[in-house]
Amino acid sequence: MHMSTVPSAASPVFAPGLVHTPFTPFASDGGIDFERYGRLVEFHLREGADSIAVPMHAGESVSLPLAKRHRVLEFVLERVAGRVPVIAHVSESGTSMAADLARHAQQAGATAIVANVPYYWTPPQPMLVEHFAQIAAAVRLPMFVHNFPEEMGGVKFNAASAIELIERSPNFIGLVDSSLDWQYMIELLMLSRRVRPSFALLSGSEYLISAHAIGATGSFCALAGIAPKAVRRLHELCMAERYEAARPVQDAIAALRMAIKPGGVAALKAASQAMGRDCGSVQPPLSPLSEADGARLSLALSKIEMLGDEPRGW
Amino acid sequence: MPLVLKGVMQSPVTPLKADFSPDLETFERLLDFHVRTGATAISWPHHKGESLNLTIAERKRFAEVAVRTVAGRVPVSIHVSALAVEDSIDLARHAQAIGADAIIAITPYFWNPSPQAIHDWFMRLGREVDLPIIAYNSPSYLDGVEFTGELITSLLEKLPNLVAMKEASFDSEKFLEISRAALAVRPDFSLVAGVEFLLPSIPLGGKGSYSSAGAICPNLCTRLYTSCVEGRWDEARDCQYKLSQLWQLFRDQYPSSLKGGMVIMGRPVGPTRPPLPTASDKRIAFIAEQLGELGILDSEPHGW
Predict the structure, then answer these.
(1) Could you tell me the pLDDT band of residue B139, with boundaries at 50, 70 and 90?
(2) B203–A186: do the CB atoms touch at under 8 Å?
(3) B141 in contact with chain A, both atoms CB, cutoff 8 A
(4) In angstroms, how far is CA A285 from the centroid of its own chain?
(5) What is the pLDDT of residues A54-104, one digit of tens each?
(6) What is the pLDDT of residues B112-124, one digit of tens each?
């Protein structure tokens, strides 16, 4: 395991490696099913998570009221019990609300926090810098920003803004990119190296090859809940810069992603169920896959040979 | 000559005289410069070559000069995309008649064509000529009009001469979708990147790229390609970061900033046709400063 947490006066150091982002298991009454959540945590630890981040969008963070969001983090911290670092997702619309989540994460014992741009407001760049700077200032924990324009109303956290934030916030140590934009990733690393050489780029999706070639050192992978062995293998081959060997694995994982993408979290949960790990239904306003979409997904999954090597059940 | 796409292929700019008329003599010099400094292929006129601001007659004259001057030293492809489909067909037939090695074509301009319309257009173009065709995918410049995996599968099943794609989405998901679809039908299909994004694309199976900055820094282009194929990733990152800075510099008022940069490198190629601006003295001075900071002035050839 190649992660470490070393406090430093200047900028905290934390290399999260391969980060698993568990789904949130729900019971039929809409409550969190902690019995299954416990088994899910063990599954992720057994299947190669270097770190665990909860509750990400794949864990339906935005559908959890505050008390449940706190509870999820506390529960996962208690179950993981220091075996790997736990990263708390603290995205909110309001800056003070996000900062409160960050403070809670620190008190509860999380290793780091990760935040998206604020929901709904589509703020201009200076407001984004201010938002993240205030969250960072609320805690001593290392902070990652997640850049995912496609999911966040087209709002992108520009490379120039990231540099401003690095200059303001000593604990802003890395960016998780889901834009998949080559020029953006290159620009970010090129510029950040001048002001914070240790600044990390992590991939926010399972497209690891290009991101690692550019200089990424880890990733957040929701598909680790479906195909953890392939994701782990891809991560290790990319860490070793063995891209040619990584290509067939990357191709198979891309096929899995494209099968799941149209259905979003509902499709992730349906695929998890197909792999023998029933995490219950998605919560409103999301709805489960229609019968036709479910059938399309099953057909697509049946064509992905790689899944034959993946663990079934808990 | 057989078409093998690999390495950094050059798409020359179009030299113009002060009155904006074609400067064929300087074009010959530029073609020679590219071939001498490591271009693995020549392709003309990409958008960087102001294709859409040239008349069809002018495009034919330049194309003839390109094929004649390169004279088989490396393959020559002709970009046949034009606003009118009839013009594209005319340019494609002309390319074949003058002995070009391939043609390259983008999805149709302006009309936001449906996938079916893109399909029908490439089927027509592909049957019109007996030359290899390179399809050109550029969703960010064409308002999201693009090749999907499904579309490329369907074309490859019917068009034996569709051999490659210039894939300029610069996005791993799109690149992989096309690559997975194409290689399943045609294992020797080639994907090449639009500008020198070799570091993210070669590890994904890309064969090479066209080039933005090749008339400025051919040595850097060659070093990037070589370090990628030889797996020297630290060196590749160093080169790629530099070339990305150059792309940021030149894409502003493309290609006039590039032509401005060529003045500094001792290879002037004249103005840029309106509505594109011609680089001002102030802009040229700014570019000179940037090229100096990146070490280009000391490490790259000056003059022809």
Answers:
(1) confident
(2) no
(3) no
(4) 21
(5) 999 999 999 999 999 999 999 999 999 999 999 999 999 999 999 999 999
(6) 899 999 999 999 9
Count of domains forming chain B: 1
Domain residue extents for chain A: 14-240
SS (H, E, C) A30-75: CCECHHHHHHHHHHHHHCCCCEEEECCHHHCHHHCCHHHHHHHHHH
- The CATH number linked to B98 is 3.20.20.70
Please write the tens of the pLDDT for every residue from A136-187.
999 999 999 999 998 898 999 999 999 999 999 999 999 999 999 999 999 9
- Give the model's pLDDT for residue B2: 67
Do B244 and A190 lie within an 8 Å CB cutoff? yes
Evaluate whether B269 touches B259 at the Cβ level (below 8 Å). yes
Structure tokens at B28: 């010959």
**Residue contact A186–B204, C-beta within 8 A:** no
Beta-carbon separation of B180 and A255 below 8 A:
yes
**Reported ipTM:** 0.86
Q: Is residue B44 part of a domain?
A: yes
Q: Running DSSP on this structure, what letter comes out for residue B197?
A: -
> A–B: how many Cβ contacts below 8 A?
78
Of A280, A227, A235, give the one whose Cα is nearest residue A253: A227
The domain of B145 spans 7-216
Nearest by CB to B241, from A190, A244, A247: name it.
Answer: A190
Asked if the structure places residue B205 within a domain, the reply is yes
| Chain B residues with beta carbon closer than 8 angstroms to that of A214 | 199-200, 237, 240
* Domain contains B236: no
Tell me which CATH homologous superfamily contains domain A14-240. Aldolase class I (3.20.20.70)
Separation CA B102–CA A19 (nearest Å): 46
- CB contacts of A205 in chain B (<8 Å) are 173
B141 in a structural domain = yes
Residue type (1 letter), A218? G
> By the CB < 8 Å criterion, does A295 face chain B?
no
Helix axes A264-274 and A243-260, enclosed angle (nearest 10): 110
Tell me the CB-side half-sphere exposure of residue B153, using CA atoms within 13 A: 7
SS (H, E, C) A236-265: HHHHCCCHHHHHHHHHHHHHHHHHHHHHHH
